[in-house]
Structure formats: C-alpha cells, structure tokens
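Researcher: We're reviewing a set of sequences before deciding which ones to prioritize for further study. For each one, I'd like a predicted 3D structure that I can look through quickly. This is Ig-like domain-containing protein. If possible, include the structure in token form so it fits the rest of the review sheet.
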Amino acid sequence: MGGFPFSGSVRRHVSGLGVLPALSSAERTERPYFDDVSPRNVSAVVGESAVLRCRAKHIGNRTVSWMRKRDLHILTSHIFTYTGDARFSVLHPEPSDDWDLKIDYVQPRDAGVYECQINTEPKINMAVMLSVEDESFTPAPQPPPRSSAAAATIWGSQDVYVKKGSTISLTCSVNVHSSPPSSASVLWYHGNAVVDFDSPRGGISLETEKTEGGTTSKLLVTKAALTDSGNYTCVPNNAHPASVSVHVLNGEHPAAMQTSNRATYLTSQLSCALITYLLSSMAGR
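Model: Here's the predicted structure for Ig-like domain-containing protein, in token form for your review sheet.
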C-alpha cells in the first residue's frame, strides 16, 4: 500500500474533508489539533508489537479515539478499550498529549489504516497506515516468561466437554504481581492461531479483570460448533501458558463418554486379572 505524502516541515490539520492549511498560533490556542511529528506509515513483524503514534494538542474536555478504517470499528476512546480483542490498548502517560494505539502480537489481518480522532464539531482525524510483514512466523503459544515460577492456570478439568450450540467458557488465572496492574496482558490461542474476536463467526468475547495480585481472563465462545473443538491456550505476557482440550459434542452427553471410558477401564482390569489367574494356574500344574 502507498504511504501518506505529508511534508515533515509543515504541521497540518486533517479532517474527513482532506488536509486543511496549517493553523496560526492564535487558532491553535482555541481549538485542538494534531501535532503531526510522528510517522504516518508504520511497519511491524507478525508476532511483535506495533505502536501507532498520535499527539493531540489543546483537546480540553474533548475525547481522543482510535478507529479501524476497514470496518469503522472504534477500538479505544479516552483511556478505555472498546473491543474484545485484548491485544489493543491505548498508551497515554499523564499528563502528556500522547494517545498512542498499541497492538500486541500483531497479525496479518491487522494491516490497514487506523484513524486517531478528536470529537470536535466537525470531527477531525489523522490516519496512520500499518503494514505487517509476514516472515512465515508460526505463533508460538509460549513467550519468554518473566519468572520461571509464574504460571497460568485454567479452571476445571484439562478436558472440557460441551454440547453443540452451547457456550464454551474458559477462565484463566495468572497470579503474578505486576505494577501497574495494566502491564499484565493475556492472549488466547485456538490451536496455533490467535483467537480472532472480530472474525465473521462472531459470538466470541473476553472478560478481563486486572488487580495488583494478578489477572483473570475469561474466554466465552457462544453457539459452539464442531469446528470450535481443539486445544485452547491461555498465554500471559509474564508467565508460563496453560492449555485445555475442548470437545464439542454432537448429541452425545459427556456423562455417556465418561461411562464408556469407565467401562473400558473396568474391562481392561478384568482381562488383566483373568490372564494373571490363568498363568498362575498353568504354573501350578
């Protein structure tokens, strides 16, 4: 994709109508504007982090937001995130004018145009192009942990059975102290692919609670289909990951499977006992 041809020597004000002339000093003291000193073209490698810069001056009580252009999805507003994809966050060190969008574990689908917006009337925005380089990277659900003793735990059994059409609910706890709490993040994988909360499938959401004592991440997959079966991995950025195996059943109840497994086990035990008895009888003759 092509870049955005902006001159580095002139700061400009961008709106949905195009590029407006540079503002005078008097005008800048009365209305917000973008301090256009950051690159409009950003490159990132799959699996790494990308930061899209946005510096908004004199916003007053107005709000700075980030929007993904391809689907007009609002990702962040002020310091809050408005997407179920936990890879997105806003970086705003107080009391700076920076409102940077951070994307962790960048994926090829993240490539495209993002807009930093100020809710003036009319609204003004600044576009940033993200290019993603795919170096045949295979997502590795085990980033280097900060502590060898820190590990994630997924509640319940390592094998989860759900009926087709019901909801898959997986809760992962990471009992790692972090300062600030927001520095700890959790990513979910289905097999070797990062769970895509904005996929056409829909019905996938994430609930995350962060405290100084740790992080709890709850993955919800509604209307489970047979294709939702497989290995799910909770991958914290500061601890060892944890995995469970999900089995979506097409009409068969988990209890039936467990009963069948128990019967198979008992049959195996009886067979072993019978063979042992026969061998002992033959040896005694």
